[in-house]
Structures are given as structure tokens and as C-alpha cells.
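Q: Structure for this?
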Amino acid sequence: MLPQRVARLRRLALIGLVGALAVAMSACASERGSGGGANDTFVFGAAGAPKNFDPIFNDDGESFRPARQMFDTLVTYKPGTTQLVGDLATAWTPSPDGKTWTFTLRQGVKFHDGTPFNAAAVCFNFDRWYNMKGAAAQSQMIYYGDVFEGFAKNEGDATGDPVYKSCQAKDDYTAVLNLNKAKGAFPDAFGLTSLSISSPDALKKYNADNVTQSGDSFTYPEYANDHPTGTGPYKFESYDKTNKTITLVRNDDYWGDKAKTAKLIFKIIEDENARKQELAAGTIDGYDFPSPADYASLKDAGNQVLIRPAFNILYLGINQKNNPKLGDVRVRKAIEYAINKDQLAKNKLPSGAYAQTQFLPNNVPGYTDAVEKHSYDPSQAKTLLQQAGATGLTLNFYVPTEVTRPYMPNPVDIGGAIADDLKAVGINVNIVQEPWNGGYKDDVQKAGKQDIHLLGWTGDYADAGNFVGTFFGRQKAEFGFNDPTVFTALSNADAQVTPEAKKAAYEQASVAISQYVPAVPLTSSPPAIVVKSTIHNLIPTPLTDERFYTVTKG
Amino acid sequence: MLRFIIRRLLQAVPTLLVLSILVFAWLRLLPGGPAGALLGDKATPQKLADLNHLLGLDQPIFIQYFKFLGRVVTGNFGSSLISGDSVLAEVGRSFPATIELSFFALVLAIAFGIPLGYVAARFHGRLLDNATVLTTLIGVAVPVFFFGVLLKYVFAQKLGILPPSGRQDVTIDATHITGFFTLDGLLTGEFDAFWDAVKHLILPAIALASIPFAVIVRITRASVLDVQQEDFVRTAESKGLTTPVIRRRHILRNALLPVSTTIGLQTGLLLAGAVLTEKVFNIPGLGYLLAQGIERRDYPRLQGLLLLAALVYVLVNLLVDISYAIIDPRVRVR
């Protein structure tokens, strides 16, 4: 009896379920849009999810990539180069003291919400950044903090005096920016994606400044999550977190050449191997930073591996604090002489990588041949070690794991090769491997536990200060030295206003650094971007800041 | 009865408290921290220290813990440092992907496991049986992630007949209502989207099903072999029942009892296997959230996920205990 009753109940439940489903089906009409054809949609495999879409609160490449398609900046870099060209500004002129910048703005530009772009909008953005309130919001403005040093009221980690003073809309298309001091990073830094110009109306409407922090987490406002509004060639459509896709659509009112594809989709695929497989399966059209080991197979499969000009530095850091021998410049030079950088560039880095003599890529003003070179010479290394009484030196060599960076595709391999070179001249090397996100950066940059370590940097713009200034501009636990000659040379270079004076000052700084050897510059390597053979007009750029509106398919 | 339930609920509180302490302490014992992962390449020691201060991570661990507990009691699990979304919203969003995948895997395992186990038993000791035993041995022995990678390589990369990863083709522009993509396709009548979602499920579901499939085959086989020796089967034969009727009604039905228990146990394990499968197939489910959270040291997300998982586990156990108590009143007084 009981089984029969259960069976009857089951039948009833099934009928009910089918009924409910039928009602639901009738209620849920399809909401899908028309969409573009396969040739009208460019699908790019992103390596990670963006933090949000408000450029000012971001500092990483995966957040910047979609932002760059939706926003414009005052100035930008000519595709394929680091050369500055106009974007929302057609001209930019500094005052002789470098404290005032006058921007002539492009006319007839509209934000995605239909409001006009003008000088008032530019000043609104600069004022917004400067007056940003709350430690949470300020702590997320990494690039603003770096470039402008401080806020109207410092609440987060910025402790400096603000560089920014005020902005005046002289007329509709002339914006005048007043600074408290000249800074060498300008005008290049005005092209940073973080400093993209947003629609003032949208910023206000969607409460853009409302970054909050509760306990150990942050929340971002509606503007940053769902309503980024710029003037760029693509407009934001959706971010589908259940399918890990960001969809942008063509801005038909764009002031420049209209985007060639109606849709631009970023598919987030964290695993590099998975990106490669998706490309092979044809479900994405391209992805960034393919592993150099895959270049050949990717090309064999008919893809284009587009090599960017190198714009990064890989260095072997030397911490002078823990081992007194490293305070002796002869020992530091010996380490540099011991390393076969050419071999490293050839065997461990992608094709096009080159051995470095200084801490600047060769396309940045300030790079000079006048630096003191310590090319591979093991016998010279041994002699110097002997002279310094440092034979039998033992060094703790920190090497990161679980990480790939454009300047070091495989740090463990690179670290192994360097350790072999050092051992060959009699230095005992104790390799300490640590995961990149598992304490490596804390130990190396904050605690300074290492004697030597691997690290690098990708430039944000073509200013030498962005490289050498970042490394050696002040005393750091990472390097553990305090040398006024180097610090002064760098601060002097940063204060130069004219490009010629700046170049000369950084050349001088580069020479001073090469004599002091605070670390060993190893290589600069060109990261690649890979696309299918059917993709055209994607211009790879050294700053890895490609804009996709020129891309055609088919 | 009510007293029993209240007593068990009160007993669950210290369990959860201890678990929360373990989760909290474990996360903070991991080297590295969220500040380094959040700030990326541009991190400076000053910025790291300030961010740690802002997030309260420089406070003594017990103070951090009590603050955390205070928030959790009010239902606030915090927001993920990676996505900025509340942890509860993330879980709600990712849940359907995991359930959909696990459900498909289970259906596959049952649909193929039971018949194969039965057939193997029927041909006991012959080639088919031996081949089945060997296959299931491999199914249990091969790690899920390796099998997943292998499937991807063959069916997606080499043959190109199935998509390698994800939940749905990004160019399809499907409407999502419930978050269960296959169900959404049916509900909205977007059958191309439904079919695409099914195609995306095939490889991960096979990978995930490999272990439960093997277990089900073996249990079914063993159980059928057992049952066909039973007296009642002989009785049925002597009554003159036809072989198909004996097989269906007397052997299979009785043999399925231990199989159904096994399926229940395997369902729990499926969710654990989903963590690896989701990572391999880039499926944004709960396992994926967990893996990414560990990689990036996303404390709020991990705390929330692990505690919610623990809570569910404790509640399920509680329900089981209560059901025992209903079935067998003696349990209540023990």
C-alpha cells in the first residue's frame, strides 16, 4: 500500500513540476539582443577579472584593458610606440617653471551618456581625484597617489603634499592645470589609463566616489561596477560574472575612427593553458602574454604571435643590509661580472630579449651608452671577490614561484641559471623559493630578508623616473642602501622641466647608478600578444596598452 | 522532540565556533596576505603596510577574529577582495554552476554505471566483466584533473568537437534567469543556448563523473552477484517466472538498495571533485571561487565560503540526526 501511495505522490509532484515549468516558460520571453555576427565580434581572452571599471581605482593590466577601450585620456601614446600624441587634448603646453599645464581640448566629443566633453568636465575629473574623501577610496588610487603624491586631505596611504593645486576651465575647450611643483613625470603621466576622463554627470548620478571599507574588505560604487562612462570607441554593456565575460559595444558617436567590430568581448580565462586551448578551439580570437615556450606551436597552428617592443626590466636585486660583504661595491660588481646576461636573454627569455647594462629600456630618454659596463667576465669576478676578501661568500637568493611576468616568464629557470653562474665564480648560493602571492613580495620588498633576489618592472610611460626613480629614488628595505649620490641625482633629474634637460639628467643618473651597482640590471624582454590569422590591424604596443577599435576580422 | 532539536542546535554552536577559529587561524598562518595580491606589481612596502592597517590586518589576531565574528553574527560575511562583491552574492551566483555540473555528472554516472555494473555481473568472469573491472579501476585511480586535461586535449583541442572550457559560448548572447544555463535555455526557448550549455557540460561532467561512475559500476556488479545467489531468486525461478521478470523485479530491484546508499555518499564527494573540475574547465562555480580565493589570499571570500560550507555540513548532519530521532525514538534519550 505504502509504495503505491508514494508512487502516486511522485507522479503528482512530477505533474506539478512540469506545470510550473510550462507557466515559467510562458512568462519568460527571451530578452536576447540581436548581437553581432561572428565577424563583427572580437573575443579576447583576458588573464584575470577586472577589479572594477572606474580607471582611477585600478592599477592592474586586467582592469585597465577593458577601461582603455571605453575611456580616453588627455594625451596618449602613438600606437606601437611610447611617443606622446594628443587624445582628448590636441595640444598641451607647460609654463617655463613646469607648474602650469594648458590643454587645448578636442571639440565635438561626447561622453557615452550624451553629455558634452569640455574643459569643465576635465576640471571636474581632476577636482574629483584631488578631493576624494575616505581612506578606502584613496587607498585604491594607486597611480594618482604616485603621480600627484597627496590629496586635499590625506586619509589613506598618501602622506605627501599634493602636487595638484587647481584646474580652471578658461573657456569651453581650454583647461589650465595648476600644480604646486613641477614634476618630471608630466606630460607622459597624463596618458595613464588611471587618469581617464569620465562623464561628470554619470559620476554624480552613480555615486562614483562611494568606495567603502567594512572589516577586511572593500565595496565599490555603482559607477565602478555597472556604469563606466567615458568617451572611448566602445561602450560598456555588461559584465556577466556567471559566464565570466565582459561585453562592450561600439560607440557610434565616437569622435575618431569608429570601431571596426560591433562588439568586443573579454572572456576571462585565468589559466594560460586554457587560453591556448580556447584559441585552438576558435572560441577566442586572441590572448595576451603567451608563454615564450608556446610561440613556435602557436605560429605552426597558423596564429600570429605579435611581438611588442621591450619595455621592462628584469633585475637581480642586492640587499646590502644583511650581509656586510655586499656593502663593498667590488663584491656587487663581481656579481654582475659573474652573470652571463647574453646567455640568459638567449636561453631563458623570449626572442627579442636583450641583455641590459642599465635600468632603462633602450627606448626611454635617459638610456645611455656612457654607463659603466660589467659584461660577463668570470675571471674578473673572481679577482674582485678576492680583492674584497669575499671568497667563499654565501648568499640567500630569493626566487619567486607561481608567477609569470612579462619580464620573467619563468623565474625559477632564470634563478637557476643565475645561481649556476654565481657558483662558477665561487659564490655559494642558497636558493629560497617562495610563491609570488605567498609571501615573496612581503619578504623581499618589505622585510628585506634576502641577500639577492629576482624582480622586475614594466613601465607605465616613457619616463626614466618611472623606472630608476621607482627603484632607487629613496631608501628601501629591498636594497638596504643609503647613498645620497644616487638619491640626489634622481631627484635632480625628476625636477627637470624641459625634455632635453631631463634626458641629460637621467643619463647622468644612469651613469651614477652603474658605478654604484645597487642591483644588477639583467634583461629587457618583449612580451607578445597572440591572435588568430583572421585578425588584422592589431598594433602591439610597448606599453601593452593596445586599443582594439582598429581590429578587423575575417 | 523539540527539546532534542534545541539541544542539538545548541550543540552545533560550539562546533561552528571552533570551526570558525580554525578557518580564521589557518588563513592567517598562510604566508603572504591579501594586501600584496591586491596591490600587484606597484606595491611598495609603505602601501602594503597602510593597506594592512586599513583592512585591520595589523591588529592582534584575536581582535581581528572577534570583529569578524561580530560581523558574521549579523549575517555580514564581508566582500571579496577580488571581485568587490559581497561573499553571499558570490556564493549565490556561483552555486548554480556547481550544482548544474554535479547534477549532470551524477546523471551520467548513474545512467551508465548501473547498466554497465549489471551487465558485467551477468557476464561474470568473462571478457566483458574483466574489461569493466579494469576500466573502473582506472576510473578510480586517475585523478580528476588529469582526466579533465586529457579529455580537453582530445575532444576540444585535437578533434575540435566540444568546447574546451567555460559554461557557454560568449557570442551566443543568451538570457540568464536562474543561473542554471541549461534550464535558462529551456525556460526562454533559446534552444541554441541550451544546446551550447549542454555541450559545455559534457567534458567536465565526464571528468567529474569518472570516480562515482566507477564506484557505482563496482557496487552494482557486486550487489547483483550477491543477490542472484539469494534464496528468493531460486524460489522465483522454481515458481516458473520468466528470466526477464526475475532479473528486473527480483535481482535488480534488490541489488539497487546498496547502490542507492552509495549514490548518496558519492553526491557529497562530487562537490569536492567539482573544485578541481571547475578549475580545469574554467567554470565559475564554488570550487573555482575557492581556488582563486586561496591563490589571491582573499580572506573574506575564503572565510565566508569555508564557514558556509561548514554550516551546511553541520545542518545536514543535524537533519540526519533529527530524522534518526524520528525513525528511532531511542536515539533521543541517548
